[in-house]
What does this fold into?
Amino acid sequence: MKHVQSDALMQRAQRSIPGGVNSPVRAFKGVGGTPIFFVSAEGVILTDADGNQYIDYVGSWGPMIQGHGFKPIVDAVTKQATTSLGFGAPTELEIIMAEKVVERIPSIELVRMVNSGTEATMSAIRLARGFTERDKIIKFEGCYHGHSDSLLVKAGSGVLTLGLPDSPGVPATLAQHTITLPYNDSSALIQAFEHYGDEIGAVILEPVAGNMGCIPPASGFLETARRLSTEHDSVLIFDEVMTGFRVAPGGAQELYGVEPDLTTLGKIIGGGLPVGAFGGRATIMNQIAPTGPVYQAGTLSGNPLAMQAGIAMLESLDATFYEQLLSATRHLVGGIEEAAERHQIPLVINYVPGMFSLYFTTAAEVTGYADAAASNIDRYNFFFHQMLDAGIYFAPSAFESAFVSGAHGSAEINATVDAADRIFGSMT
It folds into this structure.
């Protein structure tokens, strides 16, 4: 495929946008080459600036669980746009959205709308600290919770070492309140609570990690986090920005049967428009202004366009949908696994309903960041570009999840498996 227009647009973009992109992963730094500029999408088909078409497994990084251009959402947003784009004042739409979230996620008694997943996790952390009157938080290596200061932290050496800033601009004094542990390591979590228990205000984690690829929770990991948080009066936060309403009607907490104190949401609840939310136990949520002293605000929070899109999306997702989504995910994963085995390509595929990741590795399993980082990144990059040439758009990073939608049918999945089969054959 030729990408003359995308190349020209990237050169033009770099003259006015840092790195030519408005979010780093879009720059193709992880895989090399020049990013593709897209102009339209329908169902699972993307069309780029050069007229090339691709089967999409990025889905705008998760929100497009019904595919692009889903008619109920388009109709709802179009109708709302003729009425008002926003008021900066209460609307019934916000109530309807809140009611739908509360109905579907039992752990959420009250919910506050915001404008992004980063806002949601930032606000949840502030709320947890305010509620517990404790500064320290626990996060897990490889889990991304947005770009707020407290969460841009990596681990030092040793299980109990406090974090160091992972980005210039993050004060070391703030980072020192963040304890970073290996994901899926219940023993490390137990040790951290033994050492810092009464100082820990919150534990935040992705119940299914999605930013070191897709890594489901190990047996007992979520349960341990729940038990320790309860025993030490800490707030357990599930970051379900990615998994909320994707892996099950009630998110990953329904799928695994573990309820947090607070939940952060985004992506799917906006139907493709910018949105986020955080919610949980009323005793905690009532500490948010105006009912409590913990301040949080947003001029565009709960804007009518996003609410209409999110309501239409949630109304389209029923139990039958998730059964079909799991079936499609298994069809795709199984086909790629068989192709890899046929060509003797060492490959581990992790998946949950609607999410998956490919790790080119000889390891038996991938359960955390160290496993993901040890996989063959060069082989993934080769696979990515070969799939791109075949008209298949995967995540432009080995450390990002891929997504299956309700619009992926057998024809698209079979075409993807056939392309993978050809590419694996060229790797041997």
